[in-house]
Amino acid sequence: MRKFKTESKKLLDLMINSIYTNREIFLRELISNASDAVDKLYFRSLTDDSVQINRADLAITVAFDEAARTITVSDNGIGMTKDDLDKNLGTIAHSDSYEFKAANAKNEPGEEKGLDDMTDVDIIGQFGVGFYSAFMVGKKVRVVSRAYGSDEAWAWESDGVEGYAIEAAERAGHGTDVIIYLKDDAGDETYGEYATEYGLTDLIKRYSNYVRYPIQMEVTKSRMKPRPADADDEYMPEFENYTEVETVNSMVPIWKRKGSEVSQEEYNEFYKTDFHDYEDPARTITVHAEGTLNYDALLFVPSHAPFDLYTKEYKKGLALYSSNVLIMDKCEDLVPDYFNFVRGVVDSADLTLNISRETLQHNGQLRAIARRLEKKVKADLAALRDDDREAYDKFFEQFGRTLKFGVYSSYGMAKDILADLLLFYSAKQKKMITLDEYLADAPADQESIFFAAGEGLEHLAKMPIVTTVLAKGYDVLLCTENVDEFCMMALGDYARKDGDEEKSFPLKNVGNEDLGLTTEEEKKEAAEATEENRELFDVMAEALGGRVEKVVVSTRLTDAPVVLTTEGAVSLQMAQMLKNAPGAEDAPKSQVVLEVNPKSPVFDTLRAAHAAGDDAKVRTYTEILFDQALLVEGLPIEDPIAFSQAVTALMK
Ligand code: ADP
């Protein structure tokens, strides 16, 4: 017996006994080796006249024996000599491989990262599971191979523990058979299902469906027996099983085909089967890139949000293939969080199979592909917005929250990509509009974009701070979703492109900012009126305790007697939201201002009471006005019983 090298043995040990649960990929790895071996022979035939093969004969065969618990993966590729077997299968991982160096390079100079410090994921990622993954399911593996052009075959056999043996063997033609003797079942760990027709076809279809060569398997079928000549009226048809060799994989991947050759129906079918959706996708995006980056991508925007999209359980990502072989089911790095609803496939021959979670992040090609795909998705959504608004509205209903959350969670970094995709409800136009549409409709002198945040469109539309702005001829965007106000804050402003010129419009919450709608003159008047009523306002502020910062004369009100506004970044709605969030004790509070409408008769009543020395009345009225203002904002009042008692007392 030949012993595995120490390094190899350690690796093998770690891998076989690792917690790595995705055992089923062993078949993908073996089929991919087989496909490589066939490739090698085919390429040799192109340059070497002595190699005479017929491309149509090149194939991979998968066979199984349920009773003996064996699986055999065969190919008629280049094969291996005795030396090759020793060299290729005797050493795990070519320690000169680029990934291995990369792993070491991360350490301090002179301090090598020992194998013992690496996790199983590292190992699988750094070296590729490759051939040795067979030991994740097999207790013994036998490889019988005959190199092309040689007339002798050799067998390599190992239990994956200490070492391996090589002996002379027989094989009819060139190529390789890898025979796995499945491990015994132990408790939850069952291996037997791999050696079944269903188990294998399922794995082939899932992981190797798009391998370029046919993957053939003998499958059992059923057919009706021919009707006997002497059958009478009572004859019941009989069935019999027979076996047939079938090509299990579909070979030509749909994403490699030109968009013009594939019908939307085919794309829809592919989407529904592969991504387990019952509805056709809303958008299908195809990319065929050649040049510095070579890849094909097929992306879908679903018609509806999956039920778990807004939960922690949801996992974004695109399926990643390298030359038709699946590397990863959901490669997260290929889509940004704000396009997490996009499903699809990316296939690039430039990527190596043994790419892992860790190396992906350091993979420049992958990042470049991700950037380009992001642009593609953006462009597609923008086109939908411009060409089919009804469909875009539907899309936004499903995924708008994700886009808005993207603006917020990227602290506005993603705003260039996302801002013009956003829709908000226009109080004036009574429909969802973009920020560009808001500005297109704005009076020439408008310098800002106004929005109001709160619960319920109808309610918001009636709030005094909204109606007064509307009355002046300016539109207000009504934000009713939790994320809206945070999104607006992260956006900060919106740049409208007008030809080459770009003008920036700050986004202003009508409830807590100087909207710039009052003249200097009006401001001055209000300040003076506030000063004149200083004593009255002090009584009012005192009555409300710490609940307001100050009481002032308002410039913004038309009808309502009072309104609550805020100074600083935290609006009333936001403060309310933060109050309900975890860690509420430290949540920032809003600085509330009670604005009094000087044109309201209530103001006269207050002044008269104060002048008559009846500050008790001023205090009661102030309490009522404050609570009313809260109710108008759709916010809870502190003491509803006291409020209703005060109102009742008034009525008496
Ligand atoms: P990798 O495929 O990443 O190089 P593996 O451990 O899977 O690593 O395989 C090691 C080597 O064994 C391959 O590089 C190849 O030279 C050889 N090999 C594996 N399977 C086959 C096969 N079916 N036919 C010919 N050579 C093979």
- Biggest β-sheet strands, sense, barrel: 9 strands, mixed
Radius of gyration: 36 Å
Number of structural units classed as domains: 4
Would you identify the CATH architecture of the largest domain?
2-Layer Sandwich
Find the CATH superfamily of the largest domain: Histidine kinase-like ATPase, C-terminal domain
Small molecules bound: adenosine-5'-diphosphate
Question: What is the percentage of strand-forming residues?
Answer: 15-25%
In CATH, the topology of the largest domain is named Heat Shock Protein 90
Range of helix content:
25-40%
| Average pLDDT rating | 86
Class based on secondary structure composition and strand pairing: alpha+beta
Low-confidence stretches: 93-128
* Shape field: elongated
Q: If strands are numbered along the chain, what order do they take across the biggest sheet?
A: 1-6-5-4-7-3-2-8-9
* End-to-end C-alpha gap: 106 Å
Number of beta-strand segments: 23
CATH class assignment of the largest domain: Alpha Beta
Can you count the helices? 22
